[in-house]
Known about the structure:
Order of helices and strands of chain A: HEEHHHHEEEEEHEEHHHH
Oligomer: heterodimer
Distance between the termini of chain A: 26 Å
Shape of chain B: rod-shaped
Amino acid sequence: MSSTFFGFEIARRGLMSSQIAQNIISHNIVNANTPGYTKQRPEISTTLPFPYPTHNREIIIGQIGTGVAIEYITGIRDKILEARIKEVISDEQYYNLLFEKTDEIQSIINEPGDINLNQAINSFFNAFNDVGSNPENLSIRQNLINITQELVKEFKFLKEKVNKMSEDANKFLKDTVLVVNNLAENIKDINLEIFRAINLGYNPNDLIDKRNNYLNELAKFTNYQITELNNGIIKVEINGHILVGENYVIKLDTAIVAGTNNLKPIFIDGQDLITESGQIKSIMDFRDIYLNNYYNELNEITISLINEVNNLHLSGYGLNQGSPSGLNYFIGTGIDDIDINPQIINDITLIAAAKNPFSPGDGSNALDISNLKYKRILQGNTLTINEAYQTFVSKIGADTHFANNNLYIYKTINNNLYQKRESLSGISLDEEMTELIKFQHAYSANLKVMKVQDEIIENLINIIK
Amino acid sequence: MRVTEKIFYNSSIDYLQKLSQRLNDLNIKVVTGKDINKPSDAPEKICKIIDLNTSIFNIEQYKENISEATAFLERSEEAIASMISIFNDAKRIAINGANAVYTIEQRKIMAQDIDNKLKELISLSNSQYYDKYIFAGYKTFNVPFTEVLDSNNNIIDVVYNGDEGLMPEFIDKDNFINKNIPGNKLKNNIYDIFKVLIDLKNNLNNDDVSGIINDIDQIDKIFNYLLVLRSDIGSKLKRLENAEIKLANIKNVFYKLQSKIEDIDMPDVISQFQLQQNIYQSAITTIGKIIQQTTLTDVLK
């Protein structure tokens, strides 16, 4: 037969459980707006019944329940959903940064608009036409020089902007590597705390939430794979290379890509960091593929312009000159160093407008140069300069459009997944209030039980007088 | 689906963001008046826009070329017209000179007259447009026609120092008009506008009536030739005029096309804007009510 105070113990267990449950609910309520917080739930079950079935058990009519206990506290989370969220964050951030960068290029080229490379090239060809119409006129020749200098400035402007964006990419990589290293350290530290808590038999829900926040932050920069070990520790790998191990971090660094000024992210053990999405991949792709293509296309236009104009200019005659000029109109070999020949700036009569010796009225060479605008001199003689430029601009437009569309798609997916996660793991205040009241009632009822027990025992004691 | 407060807030913010974005897009369109403000707005149309911009820009150049060619040709036409009137006068003098009633002294006075006409003709042939000689071919810096004098300072010949260079002005892609008449058109083996007057002058001085009669034929020939030159200039001027009208028309067409591609349909965009505004209004009203609605917490005592 059980003890007199058996009922007391059951009531005490009820009070304790209700109190713990109320605390868990309070914790949920105060964290309703904490980012990444996962709803926690008390797992309530009965304690071991009495007597326990053994050979020397007491012979009574049956097993009597011994009360209630909270076995553990679970966080309501969906690991698959959370992994999917990380993937989508990486994808979203990839297109986010790509859009930002391509959009920046768009505003640099200023199309459609009045002040841009296209207008500078058109003005240049038309200035040659003016010289062709009035080859003797020195102020018209001077105007050609001025307009050419504007064109050269436009090329320089674009070149500098492209270089600047390359430098920005380097700076971005340097900063990002530091942030990723920091996150990796934090994840490693939290891993350790979680490991300890689990070994002591706890369920470290809040720590897991915190670690999850760091992982989401990390996903902005790179995609990665997570392996969860038995002791609660997670390993973070990027494309098969460990970033966060069981109790160590292999940090990132930057290194110079051979033969360039560009940086690339590496692990400190020297291996290249290879990512498939996230901002690091985005900035690398932008710099090495998109920006590089734009630069090459601009350079090709510049080279064709230099070569074709010089070619005609060489064999032309300067104002009232008796022998072919033999001078290049442009110096330089591409967009990096294009400039107008300083000899011509110093003596504008050297502009070879004529095709015949001692012919001041002959502007036919200048007209030929002006008509280069219609000549198919690019892409294996299939495109005019203007058409090549159009292709260049429309490519930038299409790339930006593509990035923006994908950004929109991934934003929507991400938002959708976020809502799903909230739906599962988020806090509903109505729900929590209901639960709170439920356990409040339970607590009151347990108090009542306690009181009844008290009265019974009091009566029992009072019999003996 | 289990709905929490955060889901409410999040979707409200997301929805308001999207509406604001749409309002902002429409706002940019209304403010700029353009449907396409960046290449990414319509990558497939941007080529056409740049192409049109360039074409319109080039049309401006062709228009300039046309006015340049027109001015040059008008200057040439003036000179040729004056030459024609000189030969008109010369013919009248020659007819008088061929008349037997005139004495040798009177013919000498006529010869003097022709000499003056000849000098005027040379000066006309050396006409300038700004600072360039218009009948010099490409040698626009040099006086194209110079006199050859004998010991008595009589003009016995005129030498052409220019060349046969033609000055094209492009009035369209692949389409040009030569704006100048090189001096070899005025003095060559078949037509020599100076020789006729020199011959006439000599025949008048020498009292050679049969020679003078022969010169009248020559003057007629040159007179008709100059008329052809002038009508040639006239037809070029007409061509330029037509080209200018054509360019103006094309430019108009391009402008319309450009506007069709780039510009917004104002009433359409504004009505869209109003619609979006209404949606936004009703959205914030609803959201305002939802986030303020009484929760269980408020009811519990």
